[in-house]
User: Fold this.
Amino acid sequence: MNLMEYFHKMKGGAKSPPGVGIGEIAWSWLGAVIGIGICGLLSSNYFERHDATMLIGSFGASAVLIYGAIKSPLAQPRNLVGGHIISGFVGVASYQLFGDTIWIASAFAVSFAIVAMLATKTLHPPGGATALIGVIGGPKIHHLGYWYAFIPAGLGAIILLIVALLVNNASQHRRYPEYWV
Assistant:
């Protein structure tokens, strides 16, 4: 491939997707406000008293997928839950192995999380952030050790999933999930 062909590929070629109606916007908002709200409420009323958390930044990205892009393969239950748990383990392992050099631990956490998710058919882009948070999340996250993969990563993903099942299927025009495994 010559240089011109290389840059020509960056032009794209597909047509932009159509806009989304107000009903889809409203259902997406409702799911996100309930799902993230429950995680936040549990975090502030229980987990933070025990020096833990139920809110991690990657849940925001998961909410976009499971409430706003419900047909995406990346938003399906296996990917949501598996991606967060696997990536949580990878992030903690990376921190424990390379935590003295944060940039190396971070690079290994995200790259191996991608590899692990691809290998297990659980690719969920917010999982990359879950792995990274396992490294850079600070003392509260580091103190959890491998529990981080279960609480907050796994439990939070399950809470978001339950809300996605309830809210996304309350509309006659939406169906979630597309598949489970």
